[in-house]
Write a structure and sequence with these properties.
Layout: E1 12-14, E2 17-19, E3 23-28, H1 41-52, E4 57-64, H2 84-96, E5 100-106, E6 126-127, E7 131-132, E8 138-141, H3 144-163, E9 168-173, H4 178-183, H5 198-201, H6 203-216, E10 221-227, H7 238-248, E11 254-258, H8 265-271, H9 283-291, E12 298-301, H10 307-315, E13 321-324, H11 326-330, H12 334-339, H13 354-360, H14 376-379, E14 391-395, H15 399-410, E15 414-418, H16 438-453, E16 457-459, H17 466-472, E17 476-479, E18 483-485, E19 499-500, E20 514-518, H18 522-533, E21 537-541, H19 553-563, E22 568-571, E23 575-580, E24 584-588, E25 594-598, E26 601-604, E27 608-610, H20 612-618, E28 624-627, H21 637-650
Parallel strand pairs: 3-4, 3-13, 4-5, 5-9, 6-8, 9-10, 10-11, 11-12, 12-13, 14-15, 14-17, 15-16, 17-28, 19-26, 20-21, 20-26, 21-22
Antiparallel strand pairs: 1-2, 7-8, 18-27, 23-24, 24-25
Amino acid sequence: MNKYYPELFRPLTIKKTTFKNRLFAAPNMMSHMDYQGRPDDSMIAYFAEKARGGAAVVTLGDTPVDREHGASNPRSFAITEENMPMLAEIAKAIHEGGALASHELNHAGSAAVREANDGGEDWQPWGPSDDVRWDGAAIHGMTVEEIELVAEHFAEKAKMLKTAGYDMVLLHGGHGWLLDQFISPLSNKRTDAFGGSMENRARFPLMVIEKIRQACGDDFLIEYRMSGSEEIEGGLTKEEGIAFAKLIDGEVDLIHVSAGMDTEEAQAVHTHPTMFLPHGVNVHYAADIKAAGVQTPVVTIGAITSPDLAEKILAEGKADAVAMVRALIADPYLPEKARHGQAEDIRPCLRCLDCLTGLHDGCNLQCAVNPSAGRENRHRNMIRPATRKRKVLVVGGGPGGMQAAITAAERGHDVTLAEKEEKLGGLLKFTDYDSLKVDLMYLKNYLICQVEKSAVTLKLNTEVTPQFIRDGDYDAVILAVGSLPSRPPIPGLDDPAIEHATTVYTKLDGLSKDVAVLGGGLVGCETGLFLAENGHNVTIIEMRDEIAPEANWMHREGMMQSFAKETITARPSMKIARVEAGKGVYAVNAEGVEEFIPAESIVYALGMRPQTAVCEELADIVEDTYKIGDCNRPRKARHAMEEGMWAAIRLA
């Protein structure tokens, strides 16, 4: 029994297959492949790293069973005879890492797109019923023969996966895709044997399961992912989800319980919960299915990012296993670190969804806290021992400076980290006060912990001067001095009663009920949301025609759903003319008319500016001097950390 997480590391045996623990690497797909769905070495390395990290099973995600009507992405994986060698190599790499190999099969149904399939001019997406979808495309209601054909496709692909060495297959029956479309009253309007009652609506998923059993045998495990609820009016309810789970109980070997719909933006941020929702927000659906008497082992998923939460879920009997996606992108070694009692060394996921939305944008997988995610084969040999030990000074203890110091020390350099304040953290220190930023606070604390555990010499309350650098006889200097709030020459803005967004957290007692936030970027919006949650009436004033345009779409959708619950008014297309502390803001609207917006308290978030003067003062003392993070250009913490890591790697 593991002394740190006894439930999480208790083996699970199903038929002849034993899972070494209860922590599963849930399905996700990468874009490291060509338009014929041929994966490259990056994909093999990515899934192999997850296996080495200690997950019990590693699952490749969202693979269409055909490219006739089943694909939603032109770059989706293809299970073909030509790709069998690569399929087998991925399974072998997962096994070599000590994990079981699974593969998720899907059919997009009415959400399929022409460009991802072999469709001609008369091509139509298939679905349970004749309908018209969001873009005006006519949906073809499948005939019984077509239903049986797609079920055969599922079985054929499952048999190919078994041949390639996979231990099991995961059927994607949730999130608004075809199998879910059949059991959802929102999309299934059939009046034949495949429509009406839940027993009838479940007939197609049960047919798929039966055909896979016939093709692959009883010992090839079948997992089934379902939405505990679609969380949309007219869609699958929690009660119907429980009823469906009872119908597949005993027919499949594991039931993965998620929520929401990928095919609807408002529900997708519940399927992939953002930072605006609690951790483990969807666990109750799995718990309800278990409480209803379902005997098949139940797996829960959804914003579970720590071994402590996973252990609690299992100990309380809410699920039999826990699946993670983003947490294992952020740190694929989370399971091994937890098993050895090293939870403080787990790199935390921010739930920012840069990973998923990066794929949506047609780019490769990326992670805000793990630059190596998806690039394991290229990065593995880069953080290697230095060829010669150098004396390195890192100036600034924000996320970039801390990452630079950690990486340089890891490579064997003699590193000093100097920070002028009494604490590390830089601009992230405000996260200690904002419950919305708990994940970012975890990242700050993780970096501080890694600095303190490393061989870095830490000097707090230390102002670095040119003489300090000369006296230290340093070989290299990494400048991570950050940025300062921009305070444009707006009349009245220099009043000391007007606070910046990053300093207002400790001065809430001085704020009135009505607060105007100047600037509707992410910082202004998230500060405004924090103030609203603490009882203030907030007006966000932004000169651009939309707020938070720099946010990825899922983060923005989650934020706007939170806005709708609070007393927040957004005023885009408003140029600030002047402000009067204690009174309000004068702003000019898109029509050129000046308006007065009353607010006794004013907070500003009008961007940041690099600490250029400090950099210029310190830049030319040592030949090998690097600037990283906000002192180059103010951006997110991820950019500062990436630049810090690469600056340390470039040191000889």
